[in-house]
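It is worth pausing here to work through a concrete case rather than discussing structure prediction in the abstract. The textbook approach is simple: state the sequence, then state the predicted structure, then interpret. We follow exactly that order.
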Amino acid sequence: MVDVGAMNVCRLWSRAWLYERKHIYSHTDSSGVWPKRTPTCRIESGGVEPMPEAAGGSLDGRLKYVAFAGLGLSMLLGAVDQTIVATALPSIATDLGSLDQVFWVVTAYLITSTAVTPLYGKISDVYGRRRLTQIAIVVFLVGSVLSGVSGSMLQLAVFRGLQGVGAGGLMAMAMAGIGDIFTARERGKYMSYLQLVNGTAIMAGPLFGGFLTDHFTWRWIFYVNLPLSLLALALVQVALDVPVPSENHRIDYEGAGLLVVAVSALVAVASWGGSRYAWTSLPTLGLAAVTVLSTVLFLVQERRTEEPMVSLGLFRNRSVLLITVLSVLLGGVMLGVINYVPVFMKTVLEESGVNTGALLIPFTLGSIGSAVLAGQLMSRLGRYKTLTVAGLLTTMVGCYLLSTMGADVSLLQTAVYMFITGTIGMTGPTLATAIQNAVSGNDIGEVSSLYSFARNLGEALGVSAFGIVFNRHLTAELSDVLPTGVDPSTVSESPQVIQQLSPQLQQQVISALVNAFHDVFLFGVALLGVALVASLALPNLDLKEESGAEQRAAVHDTPVESED
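Step two, the predicted structure:
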């Protein structure tokens, strides 16, 4: 006599097994290996039903690569616009007739893109990654179009600020999206691909901007974003459908507002202090006061609200705290080197603009190559600490070699030094993956934004700090040497000033410049030394085998729902 109940159970188990195999096949990687997964279905009295974990799992094998293409393209837009404007500034100033206000075109974008970055992560953790990515792309697109039709410098500055509001979310959402659709072990190589996109964009931006300006008009450096933005929007809409928990949340608008004010004021101080305004001037001191006051109010607000914009408790996580510090330090060193090596080339070696710009290519190649290598090795080894330490050590060697450069250094030597220093790119994919790996799936968006924000803030503060070191040394050596009426700061800004001096005085100025650059790059070595100590204190955690979406689904008792 056949037991009908037993037959039904066997039939249900068979259906469950087939469902599971089908689900796993759709999630195999390029090697065809089945990833480690939790069960994706369960047997109920009425048949086989998907588990909540399956609903919140990774995307279908092909879709996640389409989603990655959309995220990479959106990040490309923000990265290119950091530098594409540089070569067009003279044409913009000529056309709009405000040479003394052209700095606003760059500063407005820098301030807004840095200030809003932390907001995207928290809000996307609540409302979904696709929605916030699309909002960032649309805001960036609208800002680009309006910048292209600007009729005055004021309009262009305002619309560049709007463009920065969108750009601030592009990098953070790209990182967070990768955290959602790939496991921590897979993320290394995809983070390195983002580094490849970012490095290429930064290097190609000025060249592309100059081409568009020369052959068309400066307005096309903004119009070119239109088709690329629409394509990125379509790819994200089609593929980036990662469910979010269906829970009610309250957005901390007060904290968001205070954070934007604090960061904007801080970036303004770092950008203008000591250059456009003296450090003791009223504008600089006023902005510094606003920074301190708004920061204190922000911390008070975050401690008393139930759902803070920035969860201060995250900083009790040693990995999050140390990686945030590392990101600030490395962002400062990277931009300091990129800014001051060209100045050395022009003032000490009297090289042309073409040779000066070309010297950044070895740095970019070193950064991209080391990032891709680190990403691939991290995905294979499943660890990140050793690679991070190795990248910092080689970067310290490169920065020290830069500090030894004198008036007799060759272009080949400088290129080699820049390539070695460019291995700072090795820390990009390792730290971006490590900070996501250190938290739960619920916090991936927040820590991704925190990482991007820390890098951007470090870049702004780093340029200012390197400038202080350089100007103080140069002023101390030249204040008693230069003729009356010649400002020491103009020596580094205009090589023509040096050429107008007597041969003996030129030698003294060159010697002072070499000594100032020596101190600047040693300052970079010191910052990297602090970063190295912080990296040695990093926990060396195993990379997780689940994607961010799978982690969220595994810990939530509430159902997950699609962004649709």
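Step three, interpretation. The first strand starts at residue 41 and ends at 44. The chain is about 75% helix and 0% strand.
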